[in-house]
Amino acid sequence: MRCSHLNEGHFEKFAHGGAPVIQGAPKGPRSPTASQPVFFNPMQKNDIAFGGLSLPGVPVNLALATLRILAGAGMALGHGWLKLPVSEKFVEGVGDMGFPLPIVFAWAAALSEFLGGILVAVGFLTRPAAFFVMCTMMVAAFLRHSEGSFLDREGSLLYGAVFLLFTVIGASRLSIDALIRKK
After folding, report:
1. pTM of the complete model beyond 0.70
2. Where do the domains of the chain lie?
């Protein structure tokens, strides 16, 4: 059972906290109890790759799709594309941050930004792609720009926060992941 059941209005409130809980949730070792209200069930095997919350309403899904497309395309075309193929200067910078095998990590960062951005933009394998881009942005914010001002880190932090959102919630209903999830 997925979060789409929240859209149908099938939830109840517990007297102790008033948190909505899905009615008819499956019983078992990982199922919710009266003392553990949940908003969605534990992940199924395909949820990591193609999962996501099924949020109600067209405006919410349009807003998330717009954010996902703009952030993914901005990352791929504005950052990742510019790093491919990786330059000696970029590899040297990765090595200066203390990474072993700087050529491997330089390629990983560039491909994470480019391919990860494209995957997030189209909404395919959104969660894993967003996770890798988020990790790359945290490295940029807290290692690469560690001696700079907040303004030097701001872009990395904002992109990191957006990709954290898509790591957690998935791509929304307007995505390839949602089409795969329906099958």
Report:
1. yes
2. 1-42, 50-182
